Amino acid sequence: MSHWSTAPETDASGLPLPCPTALSRPHWDGCARGELLVQCCADCGRRVFPPQPVCTACFSERLGWERSSGRGLIYSFTVVHRPPRPEFEVPYVIVIVELEEGWHMLSNLLDCDPDAVAVGDPVEVSFETRAGMVLPMFRRRGA
Amino acid sequence: MARQALHDVAIVATANTRQARRLDGETDTALVLAVMRELLARSGLRPADIDGVNVVAPVGGIHPRQAAHWLGPRPRWCGTEYMGIAAVLEAAAAIATGQATTVLLATAQAGAYGERGATAPWTRPSYEFTECFGLYTAAEFALCARRHMTLYGTRHESMATVAATIRNNGHRHPGAASYGRAPLTPDDVAASRMVASPFRLLDCCITSEGGGGLLLTTAERARELPVTPVYLLGAGTDRRGLAYTRAPLWEECGDIGARAAARSFAQAGLRPADIDVCEFYDPFSFEIIRQFEAFGFCAPGEGGDFVLDGRIAIDGEFPVATNGGLLAFSHAGTLQMLQKVIAACEQLTGAAPPALRVPEARVALASNGGSGALFCDVMILGSERP
Ligand SMILES: [Zn+2]
């Protein structure tokens, strides 16, 4: 619960930026090219995210990178009114998106009425630049 | 039922310092020393009787091996778990395997939070796939609660009932950080400002400062001490990965603690209906609903109704978080995990404040962790030696 103490990278406004690792670099490089990449297990076909050195379904090390359609449905969401750091503009929406390929990722839902968000809403990825890093966020798509 | 090594271990003393939102001028090192002294006084033991230590004061940099040195030169066992049920279980294992006979656990938190206006430091993960999206503890648990609402139609009214019930316990506990506050209704919870939907301010735990601890020894030795022992009937852990690094999926964490509870009940030879006191971990109101389901007190999806109609009040069938829990008693570093065991012991020894005492409490279940935390540990304690 209390093991993290390293200060994160932030942009000029103080918003946190991800610090890619050797393991995660392909994902972030994909975002910079406008592609949402996810690890896929060559042995069992499971998508693995966030990136891991082995498949969390079958322990295989034969993980490759695959491009996701970037389309999915809202699996769960929360509208945040009290942010973890004051630089976040509230309210903002955190979503878990269930991608079409059956994997999930945590992100933000942009340009939406926070009171109208619902589980099951269709969304698609939208690449947003924050201080040179491209972050995969989501917007609603037409029903 | 097979004989459990756990059954040969007893808790012979518990202690708490004052708990408050801030303990101005206090240090966590001074607090753990006060707790250690109180535990010795209450148990009738001398420093030289303690041969196992797990004492942590994070701000002061005090770790178990340093605290062991304070107690003199005897060979000692030191714990490594960072407090809570896991630390009690680790200490019990040390006693049961002959590594130590008497173990002192204590921790404290004071003077840690410098950034007012932001959330507590440990709730801010530095992880690349969560932090940039503004995830933190309340939001993580909220994502789990929302999924439950979607799957089962659970309403915030149930969460507000949990929050009001637990907070009102704390408002009546003289040792609680929130002692003396006016009674709350579920409507008051529902009217408090939104933090991370569906959680409002009063659905969320407080942050506070304070110290606490407990002493374990063999059941044999416990009988020779001038104390009312509490016995360990069963325990279990359930760990499902590192929290705050990935999306918390209900399929992966919705029933977390189920395996821990199943092992605990099996070791104790008991069922949920046998539990008199439910010292469930309450970082957020919804987690109480979830734990009643995960621990087998009710079926999946029924937790929202289960907590209504006074069932979880002090005079109800399953009183929850009787000292006010993380919502009102205290949430100081990692001490709040140990507080669940301490609260169970206070009920089982009749040491709980009269207004909050559960009549004829003989068996209590304590838990730590939760869905968003991706771990949940359970311990069942009893007033009679198994
Ligand atoms: Zn695989």
Concise synopsis of the structure shown:
Chain A is mostly beta strands and 143 residues long.
Weakly predicted, low-confidence segments of chain A: 1-7
Question: Which sheet architecture does the biggest sheet of chain A show?
Answer: 5 strands, antiparallel
Elements of chain B, N to C (H/E): EHEHEHEHHHEEEHEHHEHHHHEE
Order of neighbouring strands in the sheet with most strands of chain B:
3-2-4-7-1-8-11-10-9
In DSSP terms (H or I, runs of 4 or more residues), the helix count of chain B works out at 13
The assigned structural class of chain B equals alpha/beta
Largest sheet of chain B: 9 strands, mixed
H/E series of chain A: EEHEEEEEEEE
Helix content of chain A: under 10%
Task: Work out the number of β strands of chain A.
Answer: 10
The CATH topology label of the domain at 5-113 and 210-216 in chain B is Peroxisomal Thiolase, Chain A, domain 1
CA-to-CA gap between the ends of chain B?
11 Å
Strands of chain B, count: 11
Number of helices of chain A: 1
Question: How many domains make up the coordinates of chain A?
Answer: 1
Give the class of chain A from helix and strand content and strand pairing. mainly beta
| Cα gyration radius of chain B (Å) | 19 Å
